Please model this.
Amino acid sequence: MHLFGTHFGTYEVVRDGSGQAALQGFGLDPQPSPVGAAYLDLKDHPARVLYPMVRKGWLAARENPEGRGRDRGRDEFIRISWDEAAALVAGEVERVRTVHSNAAIFGGSYGWASAGRFHHAQGQLKRFLNLAGGFTSAVNTYSFGAAAVILPHVIGPRFKFATDVAPSWDQIAAHAKLLISFGGFRLSNAQVEAGGTGQHRSERGLAAAAAAGVRIVVVSPVRADVPDLPGGTIDYIAIRPNTDTAMLLAMAQTLLAEGLADRAFLTRCTVGLAPFEAYLAGESDGVVKDADWAAEICGVPAATIRDLACAFASEPALVNAAWSLQRARFGEQPYWAAIALAAIAGHAGRPGCGIAFGLTSVSTVGQPIRRLRGPAFDQGRNPVESFIPVARITELLSQPGGSLDYDGRRLVLPDIRLVWWAGGNPFHHHQDLAGLTEAWRRPETVIVNEPMWTATARHADIVLPASFPFERDDIAASSRDNWLIASRQVCAPPDEVLSDHQIMARIAREMGFEHAFTGGREPREWLRRMYDGYRTAHAELPDFEAFWARGYAALDEGEAAPAPVTPLADFVADPVGKPLETPSGRIEITSAVIAGFGYDDCPGHPTWLAPEEWLGSPLVQRYPLHLLSPQPAHRLHSQLELAGPSQGAKRDGYEVVLLHPAEAIKRDLRDGDTVELFNDRGRCLAALKLTIDVAPGVAVLPTGAWYDPVGDGGALPLDRGGNPNSLTSSMPTSRLAQATAPNSCLIEIKRAVA
Model:
C-alpha cells in the first residue's frame, strides 16, 4: 500500500489513468482530515523556491558584515548554483565560528516541518551544527512552553508533557461523572499530531464520554469551543479571556470554606496547602478569593461558580485545561490552580478523574494506547551551553550581552552573528512581528531552508530550496502514538530542490565532514536503522521489508481492549513507596523552590495576577477588544496556507475575524466588511464575520496566515496577510517559563480604508 504520513494523519496515494497522484483518507482511519489531503496542491505552486537564492544587498556587503542586514526583507534575490550556495554557507559558518565562536550561531528550527522521523529538519540542522562545533539553541515549544516548565515543579518532570497527565478517554467514560474543560474542545486541533497517526480517535472518545452520561461543561469565551456531539449535550459557561485562574481559585476556596475538601488526601499526597489556603482566605491582602470576588473578574455568576465547585467535589470529576490557557500572560497559573483544585477535591490519581491538560489539543492526548519507543535521528552532542527559551528570539537578537531569568537561572544572551533556520516559520509563530523584523536585521547572515517563499524566506540572505515531505521516503511516527507509517515518495522534487539531509550533506562536504554527517549511510539505510530501533523496543513489530511493503504497523493493532491510562495512580496508592520526582515527593500546592526564585510574576503557589492586557485593564479605554488567536481549522500553523482548504476559508482573499454583532454596531461595521485590526504594535487586514458564538468584547483571528507587511511612511507596517502576531505582544508568560503569551492582547477594529 502506498501511504503518505503527515501531521494531519495518514493518506493513501491514488493515481488516475495518466499517473497523476492524489491523496485520499487512510482506510483504517475513522475520521481522516480533509486538510492534509490538500498537500499536493503545493507541488507546482508559483510560490515554490526552485533554486538556491542569495539576497543582492547581502552579497554586495560581504566585506562589511556589520551592515549586511539593514535591507533584509526589502531586497531582491538572485539565483546561484548549488556549488556557490554551498561555498557561501560553509564560508559563513567557518567565519563566524572562527571570529566570534560557535555561540554566535543560532540554530533556529521547529519540529513541524515533517511528520517523518529521518527527514526532520530540526534534527538534520542540529546534527550538522553540532559537527561544526555547536550552536546556541532553544528549549521548549510555543505550544506547551509554560506548562512544560511549571508541571515538573508541581507534579514532577515525568509529567512534563500533556500526554503523560491526561487520563484516557475510556477511563473518563467509565468512571467520571463530571468533566469541566477550561478552554473547551477544538476538534480540529485533535486532527493534528507531530509525527502523524493512523487513526483519529479524540472525537469518538469525547462522544463516548457524553453518551456514557458524563456531564460535560465547557468554560470559554468562544462558543465554538463547544463541539456538537451525537448522544450527549455540553453545558457552556462564557468567561472573560485570561480569567480562568480566578475562577479556579474561587472553586478551590469554596471547597475549603464549605468543608468539602478531602483533607486526608491533602495530608497524604500534597505539601504547601497552608500558605495557599491562607492566600485564598485573604489573610495576606484582605481579599477573600471566593466566588463573589471571582465573578467580578471573570464575568461568571458567583452562584454558577459555587454550584460547579460543589458538583466537582461531590462526584468523580475531571478538570481539563486547554493548551491555549497557558499561552497567555501568567499562563503557568491556571495549570497550577487546576492541579490544586483536583487535589483539594481528592480526585487526582482516581481512574478517569483528576486533571488533564489538552484533551483534543492534539490527536494523542487521552488515547488509551501503548506509546512507541524508538530512536530519534542522532543529533550528536552540542558543546555550546548557551540557549534561550524558544519564544525569546527577539531578545536574543536585539540584546547581545544582555540577560534574562528562566526557571531559577540567569541566562546570558550571546552576540548572534549567524542565524540558520530550517523547519519553521518564525514570521508566523513568533509574537510582535514588527519587533521581530527589526531584531532580525541585526545578525550578519540569515540562512533559511524553505520549500516556499514564506515571510521567513523573504527575510533571509541565503535561501536553500528544500523538498516537501511527499517528495522523499520517510517513516512517520510519534512517540506519543502507536502507529508507524512507511511514508513513501509521491513524486520527485524539482531538479534543484534537495531534502534537508541532502542540503546539509552537501555543505558538510564543503566543510570536510560529510562522512561524519551521513554516517556513511544512504537515507534508506537510515530508515532501516531507525525502524530496527523500534523493533528492538517492540519485538512484535514486523521486519523492515514487511513493514515497508505493507505500508504501516501499529502496536496492539486490531486489539479491542484499550490500554487504560490513569496518571498519578501509583503515587496516590503509595505516596511513600512511589513518590513523585518533586522535591517533597508529593504534589506541590506551594513550591518552596519557585518561591525561592523571588519572581513577582510567578509566586510560590497559584495566584491571580491581572495581565497588562485584558478586559479589566486601563488599556481597554484605548483598545477595548481582547484578541484571541487559536489554531486554524484549515491549516497547521502556517503550513498549507496556500492550499485549497486554507484559501477557501478566506473571504475575498482575506483572513476572517469573528466579532459579536453588538461590537459591530458600536463601530458601524457590517458582516463581510474589510476591517483593520490595530494597536500600538501593528496593524493587519481581515474580513469581518459577525457571530453570537463569540462573547462581546472578544475578537477571534486564527493564527497562521502568511505575514505580508507593507510600509506606510513612518506608520506601523500594515499586514495584508492577516497574521494576528502582527498585533500580539512578545511579553512572556513569566520569568519562570519565559513562554509565549499571544492570548493576552488588546486591539481595536475599524473599517479599512479602500
Notes: The longest strand covers residues 683-690.
